[in-house]
Every structure is written in C-alpha cells, then in structure tokens.
Write a structure and sequence with these properties.
- Helices cover 30% and strands 29% of the residues.
- It starts with a strand and ends with a helix.
- The protein is elongated and about 70 Å long.
- The chain has nine helices and 16 strands.
- The longest helix has 18 residues, at 280-297.
- The strands form four sheets. Strands 1-4-3-2-5-8 form a six-stranded parallel beta sheet, sandwiched between helices.
- The chain has helices at residues 29-44, 67-76, 89-92, 96-108, 129-136, 158-166, 170-177, 193-196, 280-297; strands at 2-4, 18-21, 49-55, 81-86, 112-116, 120-121, 127-128, 142-146, 150-151, 154-155, 182-188, 202-206, 215-223, 226-235, 246-251, 262-272.
- Residues 238-243 have low confidence and may be disordered.
- α6 runs antiparallel to α7 (170-177).
- It is an alpha/beta fold.
- It has two domains: 2-155, Rossmann fold (3-Layer(aba) Sandwich), CATH 3.40.50; 180-297, Beta Barrel (Elongation Factor Tu (Ef-tu), domain 3), CATH 2.40.30.
- α2 links the parallel β3 and β4 (81-86).
Length: 299
C-alpha cells in the first residue's frame, strides 16, 4: 500500500479511483465495513482503492490508534493507497464545497465515494451525506452512504470503545473493534530486573494514545511475522521504589534481544489489577502465578 502524507502536493489527478473518506481512528467494525465495501467495489471496477484520512483527530480526541498503527491496519484490509491529510486550523476552516472541489475532485478525481451515513466534514462540520448527494452528479461520482454498524442496538463508536479500553473491558472492546485491543510500540531499555529474576521482559514505548487500564493481561505478541504468547503489565512498577508509568511484556520461551524493534501487543484477557509489593520475593511469586494463568488463557 502506498502512503501519501501530503495530498496537497499531488500534481496529477488519479484515473477515476474509488475513495473512502473518514477519520477511521479506531478501525472498528463500522470503519472496517466501509473500507471493505470500498475495496470490493474497486476490485470489481478494476480501479484503485484510496482511503483518505485525517491526522490529528479533528475533534481533538485521543485516538484509539496512532497514525502509524492506523495505516498498518488499513493496509491489512487490501487498500491500494492511504492519503493522510494534516488537520490544521486552516484546513478546519475550509467550506464543504471547497473541500469537495479542491481536494476530493481536483486531487483524487473519484468515480465513487464511500462514507459512513453519519459522516460530516468542512467548516463547523457543516457538510454531510445529504450535501454530498446533492453535488455528486455535478462532480461526476457515485456516492455510497454506508449504514452505521450497531451492537445491541447501540452505534459502534470510537468514543465508547475508548471508555471500555480505559476501564480494562477488553472482551467488550474486542467485540466492537472486530479485532483484539492492541498496542503498537517500540522495545526500549528498562531496569534489567526481569532478566535478573529469570523473567526477561520487553519494555514498551507505546505509539498510540489510549491504553488499557492498569493491570496484568494475557496477551499475544506480533513480532514481524511471528505471533507469540506472553503476559503484559501496565502501570507503575510493582516495588516500593517509585519509577515512571510503563508497559512491559514477558514473552514465553523467548530470549532474543529486540531493542528498537516494534511489537504489537494483542490483549486477550485481563487477569488482575496492578498492585504494589513491599518485597521483591512477593513480586517474583506473583509474576510466576501470572505467567501460569496467562499460559492457560492464550491457549
């Protein structure tokens, strides 16, 4: 998948691609439904599929995913091109008709446009699906308004999923996302205590902004094309000495040094809340118990 980070610099229009527009910040089931419709149409029409997204979040919300993670998941859906529009103050003041004429049509020249039925855009979010329908013939594209996806009669939204993740309700968030709750991060150096205790952990610098609640989780870990099993701790260190909040993961039967590598941690089950231990021996015993439980949970 090709990524265009500055759509404004595109010099030549595309040859009638199919385009989906949205923030797609969580890549939840509703977003996936829109993008799958786009990809299916594009393949049948022998056209390129383009996802146009925005960063940072127009509503100044904390994204479920970092931009890098979002792009990674969009690629996995079979999209040909992802165009990322920088959402600046100046861009936020563009009138809906100017966005359609100067960005969507001038830069991308679509034959078909896919949006969620509750999609809004332009200054003060004054553009909507009804407006797109009213000008689609003028600019020669077919508009596909995709119905929102619901779960238990509730619209699946990134706002609700954020709240579930922050409360540690991993299973509920998983159902709405259509995939496991995940953290993409880079392995950084830690204290080295885990290695001394014969449980070497990878300390993670997370890329995305919304993290599960503090606690211990059974997880699966993607490292390159490998899928491994492990246990993850989120919170402050569990001994008396205070250190910064962090994330660390112990990967079962894995002893390679992977500093600087990116890991995607897929959360399977929350096993317990985070808590502090006065003695390291207590902590080591609890770690061993957590490992045993996690091994059963990820089978």
């Amino acid at each position: 998948m090709k990524v265009i980070s500055s759509p404004g610099k595109i010099k030549h229009r595309f040859n009638r691609p199919a385009v989906a527009i949205g923030i797609f910040d969580g890549l939840h089931r509703g977003h996936i439904f829109v993008i799958k419709k786009l990809v299916k149409f594009a393949r049948q029409a022998k056209a390129r599929s383009i996802v146009v997204t925005f960063h940072p979040h127009p509503a100044k919300e904390k994204s479920l995913l970092s931009l890098r993670h979002r792009i990674k998941l969009i690629k996995g859906l079979g999209v040909d091109i992802c165009a990322v529009i920088g959402f600046t103050k100046k861009f936020s003041e563009i009138a809906p008709q100017d966005f359609i004429r100067n960005v969507l049509v001038k830069k991308f020249n679509p034959q078909a446009v896919f949006v969620g039925e509750n999609f809004t855009f332009g200054k003060n979010a004054s553009g909507n699906v009804k407006f797109l329908e009213s000008i689609s013939a003028k600019y020669d594209f077919n508009l596909f308004s995709i119905p929102v996806v619901k779960s238990n009669n509730r619209i699946i939204s990134s706002t609700y999923i954020r709240a579930l993740i922050r409360r540690g309700r991993i299973a509920a968030a998983h159902r709405l996302l259509g995939r496991p709750v995940a953290v993409l991060g880079t392995v950084v150096k830690g204290s080295g205590l885990g290695r001394l205790w014969n449980v070497p952990t990878a300390n993670i610098d997370p890329h995305h902004e919304v993290l599960p609640a503090d606690g211990v989780y059974a997880v699966k870990v993607k490292l390159g094309d490998k899928l491994l099993n492990g246990v993850c701790y989120i919170g402050k260190v569990s001994v008396v000495k205070k250190r910064p909040y962090h994330i660390e993961v112990y990967i079962f039967n894995f002893h390679k040094r992977i500093y600087g590598k990116d890991l995607e941690i897929l959360f399977v089950k929350k096993m317990r809340d985070a808590r502090r231990y006065a003695e390291k021996e207590q902590l080591i015993r609890q770690i061993k118990k957590d490992i045993g439980k996690a091994k059963k949970a990820v089978k």
